[in-house]
């Protein structure tokens, strides 16, 4: 069995490519890297890679991570600038015994030294949006923070290996040096090839409080299905966070187990993509439902048309 699940419908093309690779017997690590790179390279997506929205000073600082579910090797970069594909740097770092999680200049220097493509990641469109939003925030005293739609993926290949990858430009107008959940093991992602994996998108500051990716893998180890594990981890933590802080940020989790079964839970409307040996790449929309359940529906032409008229999610 092979399979892949990814956050947001922006991952559709990447999942389509990855599913073909997995079908041909390519390793899950390479399939996930290819899929995340496609999202990073597309300037249309404003929260990942090239075209990602900048921090308060107008600089694009990117976070990414990669984890190998066979070995537990993890590589991560945080606040990296001018590097075309942070996921590829993270994947290479996962092979390092030491210094496998690098930030800022150190991460950039590593990428330069190791021959990764360097480019200005700020597009004209992202710069214009930054200028506009900054003015609005200053004039209207608005909360500057929105847009934190990480691309996260979990996959399984025909040999039974699993891996996960994440990539994000983090919060729009974040403070310089701010790091979200995406490069943090246990919060943004976790995978064990003998159990399964989980990964996140949403407000990093709140995802970190619950270590939700690890919690979902722990629940799958205890015998929960991926869907039961996602529901249990997400809605329980959302309730506890709300009780203690009167609010919880938006967050959504995806999971796949070592048999290719998958699940999702979310506290907001959320789109995601799945492909398995038994299922061609399919876009879904998930919304929280009563009794700590998640409603999951395939995305219809009608839904897409509605989004085109009134876009609210990626
Ligand atoms: N989940 C991405 C972030 O908060 O930076």
From TrEMBL:
| CDD domains assigned | Glycosylasparaginase
Transmembrane stretches in the record are none
**Please, which domain of life does this record's source organism belong to?**
Bacteria
User: What Pfam families would the database entry show?
Assistant: Asparaginase_2
Give the matching PANTHER family.
Answer: L-ASPARAGINASE (PTHR10188), N(4)-(BETA-N-ACETYLGLUCOSAMINYL)-L-ASPARAGINASE (PTHR10188:SF6)
For this entry, the protein name equals N(4)-(Beta-N-acetylglucosaminyl)-L-asparaginase
The source organism is Candidatus Enterococcus lowellii
């Amino acid at each position: 069995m092979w399979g892949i699940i990814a956050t947001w419908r922006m991952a559709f093309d990447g999942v389509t490519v990855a599913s073909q690779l997995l079908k041909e017997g390519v390793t899950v690590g390479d399939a996930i890297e290819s899929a995340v790179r496609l999202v990073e390279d597309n300037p249309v997506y404003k929260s990942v890679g090239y075209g990602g929205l900048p921090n308060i000073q107008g600089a694009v600082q990117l976070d990414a991570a990669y984890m190998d579910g066979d070995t537990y090797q993890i590589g991560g970069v945080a606040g990296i600038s001018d590097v075309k594909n942070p996921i590829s740097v993270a994947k290479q770092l996962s092979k390092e015994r030491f210094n496998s999680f690098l930030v800022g200049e150190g991460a950039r220097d590593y990428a330069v030294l190791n021959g990764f493509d360097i480019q200005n990641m700020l597009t004209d469109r992202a710069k214009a949006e930054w200028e506009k939003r900054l003015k609005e925030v200053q004039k209207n005293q608005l909360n500057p923070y929105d847009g934190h739609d990480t691309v996260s993926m979990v996959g399984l290949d025909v040999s039974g290996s699993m891996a996960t990858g994440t990539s994000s430009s983090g919060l729009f107008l974040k403070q310089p040096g701010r790091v979200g959940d995406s490069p943090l093991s246990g919060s943004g992602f976790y995978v064990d090839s003998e159990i399964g994996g989980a990964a996140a998108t949403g407000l990093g500051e709140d995802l970190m409080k619950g270590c939700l990716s690890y919690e979902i893998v722990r629940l799958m180890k205890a015998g929960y299905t991926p869907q039961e594990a996602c529901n249990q981890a997400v809605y329980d933590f959302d309730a506890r966070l709300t009780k203690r802080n009167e609010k919880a940020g938006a967050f959504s989790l995806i999971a796949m187990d070592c048999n290719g079964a998958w699940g999702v839970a979310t506290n907001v409307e959320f789109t995601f993509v799945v492909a398995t040996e038994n299922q061609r790449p399919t876009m879904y929309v998930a919304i929280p439902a009563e009794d700590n359940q998640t409603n999951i529906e395939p995305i219809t032409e009608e839904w897409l048309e509605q989004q085109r008229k009134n876009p609210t999610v990626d």
